[in-house]
Amino acid sequence: MAMTGILRPGHVQLRVMELGPALHHYKEMVGLIETARDAEGRVYLKAWDEQDLFSIVLREADRPGMDFYGFKVLDAKTLEHYAKRLTDYGVAIERIPAGELKGTGERVRFETPSGHLIELYAQKQHFGNGLPDVNPDVWPDGLKGMHPSRFDHVLLNGDSIPETAKLFQEALDFDLSERIVGPDGSMVGAFLACSTKAHDVAFIHEESKGRLHHVSFHLESWDEIRHAADIMSKNYIPVEYGPGRHGLTRGLTIYFFDPSGNRNETFHGGYIRYPDHPVITWTHEETPKGIFYYGHKMVESFVTANT
Amino acid sequence: MAMTGILRPGHVQLRVMELGPALHHYKEMVGLIETARDAEGRVYLKAWDEQDLFSIVLREADRPGMDFYGFKVLDAKTLEHYAKRLTDYGVAIERIPAGELKGTGERVRFETPSGHLIELYAQKQHFGNGLPDVNPDVWPDGLKGMHPSRFDHVLLNGDSIPETAKLFQEALDFDLSERIVGPDGSMVGAFLACSTKAHDVAFIHEESKGRLHHVSFHLESWDEIRHAADIMSKNYIPVEYGPGRHGLTRGLTIYFFDPSGNRNETFHGGYIRYPDHPVITWTHEETPKGIFYYGHKMVESFVTANT
Amino acid sequence: MAMTGILRPGHVQLRVMELGPALHHYKEMVGLIETARDAEGRVYLKAWDEQDLFSIVLREADRPGMDFYGFKVLDAKTLEHYAKRLTDYGVAIERIPAGELKGTGERVRFETPSGHLIELYAQKQHFGNGLPDVNPDVWPDGLKGMHPSRFDHVLLNGDSIPETAKLFQEALDFDLSERIVGPDGSMVGAFLACSTKAHDVAFIHEESKGRLHHVSFHLESWDEIRHAADIMSKNYIPVEYGPGRHGLTRGLTIYFFDPSGNRNETFHGGYIRYPDHPVITWTHEETPKGIFYYGHKMVESFVTANT
Amino acid sequence: MAMTGILRPGHVQLRVMELGPALHHYKEMVGLIETARDAEGRVYLKAWDEQDLFSIVLREADRPGMDFYGFKVLDAKTLEHYAKRLTDYGVAIERIPAGELKGTGERVRFETPSGHLIELYAQKQHFGNGLPDVNPDVWPDGLKGMHPSRFDHVLLNGDSIPETAKLFQEALDFDLSERIVGPDGSMVGAFLACSTKAHDVAFIHEESKGRLHHVSFHLESWDEIRHAADIMSKNYIPVEYGPGRHGLTRGLTIYFFDPSGNRNETFHGGYIRYPDHPVITWTHEETPKGIFYYGHKMVESFVTANT
């Protein structure tokens, strides 16, 4: 198929301060489904329309943030292809043995110049989306909370954005869909896609490494964004921005926080993008509009709060 | 990028009985944008968010229907790759010289077992989507009618569905996302994707060859479906079904007709699909629900009217 | 307040063939809340955002249909005012003692020329909408099914439509918002309002008396209409029309049936109407468009099926 | 009809600094329709679905703000009834002769304790909503901008809120639907309705008199709110809050400013309210949630900016 290579965001492992409130947040409020726990006490969750065993892993720790972000690739051969491409590119890779994450095959891990651990893997246990493969309905019963259909992407903060984008483009065949440039014309934000989505991962510059800006969940409509906002208000979940819109990707959005301070996003929309489409550039002056299309004002915490 | 090979539905050439009413329909009602005409009198149209010069070509003729359906591939090398794959598969190909369609490079054409002319091409003149590549807004001013963002797919009627699906899968790397089976278990409907869309082309069986069932345009929301339905009612455009939903693809839909009797669709939604997702099957008994998820009744004209 | 006299549709008593399936339908599918049962076995239900004890009463019987339709009036003095107005108009009234319906004060009942039993009452036990009166959220937790916010109106079939409309206008101070006229110019449909809604009750002609066409429930958005349609499809609830729209009232709609064959409607929208607004007329030729604004085709069962 | 007495917000006269930019804003951006100008240079505008000649009057002046706010009453007799009620209540009334505003009958004007000029009138020239009274479509062609269906209400700032609310309730038969109380339990906000809307006018305390907080326009859906937000962003219209929601009234909202600094609102939703419904109270602690249901943070300018 035309869809080969690196397929999609497959999982993210998040650090949370206390598992109890975190599970209440991600299961009852966001509406993810718990599918497994492991001997280390990690909890595995998925969005309802995902087929694989999990996409979110919660690990209790003494500080919030992201341990690693994994992409599923088409097959074992593809995994080896990209392992070699990374090595040839001069990036050190580490092989995490199958089973270290529940139901997951071997993972090839590397660190980006921005200081983030990224993984590729080819195999994960099938779980299903709650619908049969024969004559399925359009959604299963029993959905809760904001009930996103999938984990969509992460946005990461760190330095060395141009080098990081180059790595994704040259070693991993990602497309640069949009970029933010600083006052001096340098790239301070990179939105990168491995599919026809407007982005599958994004990086925005800051003077440190390995920070998580947000984890994004896909909703089905602007009305589900409103419904999610209602849930946040009813339950006193801290909201940073939204319901709103990004100029970048055109996505409709809410930024909010989990109990550990990890930023979440509910996301809908965003254009379909093909590799022959032009790269979009946001200038320094219009970056506030690019990020906060409704309001045009840079929300202070957007650039100061990450985990 | 992961998105390689055959990228997307690129164009369809439709036969219309009279150009005047057809242009009123596709420009003022549907809201496509005219971008060119050629010496043969053909009119070239595009949806607003498409980047290439055209996606719909109207040709005046004495009967309605589809002349051919074209897919854009990544590049010239990919075009030759698939030309060879088709030839190796035993399919005769015809090379249509560059320029036969305005601003379009060489096309490699073949006929499916179902009797449809399908084309691949690698190059088409860039036109843009009415927005700048620097600091773009989320939509351009001046949109008209139902203002779809893109031409999305066609559904074709003919015989030899299993052979046609096999050709798309084996020679062109399409994925089978969903299939309809007849009372005897044979495949009578095939939904095929070259991307993460639920389908980029579909075939449903009938005892003739080369028929067009519908041409589909993508809208941005269920509310735009309502708006499109309002326009159809105000302007006495014949509606066959909808606003409604398909079980197949989960897409929200309206079926309606152009003045020549070609069926159109406005389409929103549909799941995102990856190649490791299961193939969905619709049984004979539940096919009416699969196609007309709201109502469950097979609309008579759905199986009798095509062009 | 400007809002005086007859306030709103307060209740309808429906006959159902079997209470079990009816309760499954109205509670689990439609999403009404059961608030009481009485010694006669009647079950009392309400929509979540209604304040009074009930709006729908189900009575098991050997045929479906409507026993009576009641309007709440402002207060006891208003009830006596309209009792006298009806008597002065020449209409016989019956007084149903307080308590015959749970938690409900005395009802003044009369029969319309169309053969329907209509009631007025001033008092009903308060139940609340699940939200506090201090710092309420925008909706309560625990809503089920299509979760309408209120019982909205009924449409009734019978003869003597002009006489019935005249009674509502002259004795009860309703406004005629819209009317349907037959080929000979006579009124065959009357939409009547006691508020700023486009209608609080409607009558459409047929050659019998006292028939129920449908009971309507108000949803909050076009997206809730879609959600309701999903539920109907998932649960094989028979749908007659929709998601669609009426030209009359502009309301967005689905017509569907309860297990006893009583037609239900989910309804959203409809204009706000003031008494100084013009009466809208639908001619015989355009009545199909007026009722089925999407499609323009008179659905056969619309004029043949009632209870 | 039940709908008698004071019917609805009929007009507001706004002061704008320069007519040119104001007309661009209200006509091209908001999408009001200009229907008349007068010898004084005032411009008369209406929302598309209003029947009367105008609802917004723009007057060029050296400071922004509101000159007066007028309610339409049912008829001349009602006008005299309320003139007497006001006089009996001890409020001085002024009679503005017919014709002072274009096409408008005599107006009875008084000043509220909060320092605002309020008017009642019974007659205004009919203009229509662009749709015929026979077989109308659901909206007319040619709508522009955010195309609200009506002018909905104003929110006013001033002192003496309890006295002002009392006047509306006791002399004008308005209902108090919601109130905000201060730390000491005193009423600092009053939401008042003359219909089944959640409010037709509102007052919030500040230590001055006669200030305008915002003029509100009704949109048809949450999706139209999004569309309006897109227009504001594209055109750099200053947005204060939203798309968001109020806990008070449950309305979906955007606050934005006209070029003179007058605050506008686009508004959708809000519950239907009857006079037998409980009054809702917002405590001091939860007032930020009541006003800014999405976010819970009091926007600084909300309490400092008015005109």
Automatic annotation (TrEMBL), chains A, B, C, D:
Q: Which keywords does this Swiss-Prot/TrEMBL entry list?
A: Aromatic hydrocarbons catabolism, Dioxygenase, Iron, Metal-binding, Oxidoreductase, Repeat
Task: Respond yes or no to whether keyword Cytoplasm is given for this record.
Answer: no
Q: Which reaction does it catalyse?
A: catechol + O2 = (2Z,4E)-2-hydroxy-6-oxohexa-2,4-dienoate + H(+)
Q: Name one GO molecular function term.
A: ferrous iron binding
Q: Which residues form the VOC domain?
A: 8-123, 150-269
Matching entries from Pfam families are given as: Diox-like_N, Glyoxalase
Q: What is its EC number?
A: 1.13.11.2
InterPro entries (UniProt xref): Catechol_2-3_dOase, Glyas_Bleomycin-R_OHBP_Dase, Glyas_Fos-R_dOase_dom, VOC_core, Xdiol_ring_cleave_dOase_1/2, XylE-like_N
Cofactor(s) demanded? Fe(2+)
* Subunit field text: Homotetramer.
The UniProt family comment states:
Belongs to the extradiol ring-cleavage dioxygenase family.
Q: Which named protein is this?
A: Metapyrocatechase
